[in-house]
## 1
Amino acid sequence: MTMHELSIAASIVESVTEAASAHPGARVKEVRLRVGALASVVEDSLKFCWGLATEGTPLAGAALAINTLPVIVHCDACGIDAEIAGVQSFRCPKCGELAADLRQGRELEIESIELEEPDPVLPNPVEEQA
Ligand SMILES: [Zn+2]
């Protein structure tokens, strides 16, 4: 665990709490993140910190799902966007030229927040939907 992941978790908790406040009574079931391979986030560490950061808050028990995005660079020589195999070498997988024009890989953002609405109180029996 590092301070880095803990501060990321705390800031996600803040954003999600703010977003969820528009739905009073709803419980947050799952938060899904988009994390680029170059975002310097250790997934296990972030999940651990998420548990700590949500403890004692309305988000306690909410799951954290991480969608890892591969690194994509643009190659001028080929005119294509290509996924590189590893972050050690920024070379176009097609022609081998250096391709430092990063198109994806540094993302760290909330993709979705899944809410569980409280059980609605129905004054009348529910009619069958067509
Ligand atoms: Zn190329």
## 2
Amino acid sequence: MRYCFAMSERKTIIDMQQLMLRYPTGKVALSGVNLTISQGQFVYLTGESGAGKSSLLRMFYGGLRPSSGQLQVQKTDMREAGEAAVRAVRRRTGIVFQDHRLLFSRTVFENIALPLRVQGWSNERLIPRVRKVLEFVRLDDRLWSYPEALSGGEQQRIAIARAMIATPPVVLADEPTGNLDEETARHVLDLLMGLNELGTTVIMATHDLHLLNSHPGRVVQLHAGALVGDSHAAAR
Ligand SMILES: Nc1ncnc2c1ncn2[C@@H]1O[C@H](COP(=O)(O)OP(=O)(O)OP(=O)(O)O)[C@@H](O)[C@H]1O
Ligand SMILES: [Mg+2]
């Protein structure tokens, strides 16, 4: 797979100032967050349950809009952008969830191909492309399997393959290792690190900070909706 991001440029990929998010219930999930993430970084988003990690990740692909403050994602103003511009950001973003969200009625091939199929890719182009990302996650023998025939860790690797199929500059992962044993979690993290080494910005919400020993990265810490720590110095 070809990636063409110039690592040396360190372009800003996400930038926010005084970002605030209030849910319709009145709950303020994020209050006055200032943060800049550059292309090519590997960022851990940490903090207690309810700190605002998932809410922040959702704003990075337009699943939620800021209530006030500034948020630029891949040069798009996420407060002002219309639906088409938000969809364009989403197409340039890979997403991995804790519960992988694979379609159990579809084969591995169909699950991974989906993001490109909606862009009109033919089977002829899709098959070699899907094979390539399956090789990356080392599951190329499972192209025609159904997800239920795979283990939890294998399903999560398929979800990573699906997230990377359209070579997005950014991959967001929300507790991708939350349901996995430690060895499988390390393996999934190896894949995300490998993707990062190819130039992809990876932002991952996690409680598993012991993974940092083997997989270093920038650690951004939220507490009750506010930014309380940022180990920028350790940024990759
Ligand atoms: N759809 C929603 N409507 C109203 N409040 C919400 C909604 N989703 C989340 N919240 C609240 O916003 C706050 C932040 O939630 P969020 O899911 O972002 O936390 P988190 O850091 O991802 O937590 P966890 O580690 O448990 O996943 C919490 O107080 C939560 O109850
Ligand atoms: Mg969460």
## 3
Amino acid sequence: MSAKYASIKTSEVPGPKSVELGKMRERLIAKGVGIVAPVYIEKAEGSLLSDIDGNVFIDMGSGIGVTNIGHRPAEVEAAIKTQAEKFIHTCFQVTPYESYLRVAEKIAKVAPGSGLTKSVLFNAGAEAVENSVKISRHYNKRAAAFSFNHGFHGRTMMALALTAKEMPYKAGYGPLPETYKVEFAYCYRCPFNMTYPSCEVACADKIDETWSSPQFEGKVSSLIGEPIAGEGGFIVPPKEFYPKVSKICKKHGVVYIDDEIQTGAGRTGKMWCVEHWPGTEPDILVSGKGIGGGFPLSATTGRPEIMDAPQVGGLGGTFGGNPVACSAALAQMEIIERSMGNVSKINSYMVKRLEELHQRFPTIGEVRGVGAMMALELVSDPKTKEPAVKETGAIKNAALKKGLLILTCGTYNNVIRMHPSIIMPQDILEESMDILEQSVEEVLKV
Ligand SMILES: Cc1ncc(COP(=O)(O)O)c(C=O)c1O
């Protein structure tokens, strides 16, 4: 079949103009900023990215799960322009404006569980994470901050401490603030060598045991968890896991922080991923990425008694809840709400195509994901589950050369992840899966 959307005009990818800018980048940008696909973008529209060499890529990365309804939706663009013609910045803490309140109102209305009614707005996801821990400590006057193995929560000091993966995120940055880890329900690689469902999700019970120990009893302030461990490898826990975790948090007076920065804003077919697991009752929601319509916007939202614990002036920041970002968010959230119904169609088609690949290639150890958040975990041997790191990178590179942008992730660097726009048209989705199939065939040689 011939590609209708992806279009590669240059003999090499990246093309010559991108290579030139790549040299400039080496001179001017710190090498710690890694780049997935060194093609310099000139224009983006819907699910397509056009680079400065005239190549067009289908975007399955969405700027790491941000452009949930595609690039430059008309309503979001219009909202940005309208706001930019009025004012761009005042700082909410100096002279406030209505759109900040409207974003908080919207999040309170759609927040998961019950009673999460007060917010503070920030820019990056990491800021929302940092503040969720600060606020929790202020509220319950306890110190210990917990997170899960395989979790990712950002790159600032506390967010980094809560993040699990050493290389490349944490190595060399110590000492980091003191935090503690508990095991996540990574059933494909169960840390307790158990099998679901006969394990009865014992990994959640272990948290209860840890917090009942003399070391931690009465000392744990918060537990932060991603509904699906995103950077950790799109690890989906069993449906019983989070309802249990949320009950255990309640039992111990621990603030349960739901990190929906990657999984939220309609990505999984519900506004927040934990809504897939009734009985899960977060005390604080942290959101970012997809809520801002491509603008930097994040939020920490929680129960009023928790959110109101810090003193006046104890929360904020110069740019948090920027008016243009708030206008973009309000327009975008509306489109997300009316588009979430489309996610099950995207999911069914992707699951079908990815499962076909799984059947054909033993190197594909597991297909997993929820909604428009799907992944393949690659292993060199399905029995030993040795991570197939080289093949994972090679498939990503082969796909890019054919005009498909996919991302990789995983604690073991062996997961291909895809987060398409939740309104990606069916024919573009089909073409993306065709290119992925060709790339897998090319690398795994069948
Ligand atoms: C689950 C999760 N939390 C927090 C963050 C940090 O967000 P940001 O990069 O906007 O600081 C990320 C970013 O990838 C994320 O996926």
